[in-house]
Write a structure and sequence with these properties.
By secondary structure, this protein is mainly α. The chain has one domain. The protein is 15% helix and 0% strand. It is built from 1 helix and no strands. 2% of the residues are buried.
Length: 40
């Protein structure tokens, strides 16, 4: 799952580790654990 634009707006310039573990996407309802970290 790709990060949503909402996530990028809510946590600009933050590392994925800084996003709270209980975070849920307000657009699609996906939880942080539903996302896969990709190295870029």
């Amino acid at each position: 799952m790709k990060p949503s634009a909402h996530l990028m707006k809510e946590f600009p310039r933050h590392s994925w580790a800084e996003v709270p573990p209980n975070w849920t996407c307000h657009e699609c309802g996906a939880r942080k654990e539903d996302f896969e970290m990709l190295q870029i």
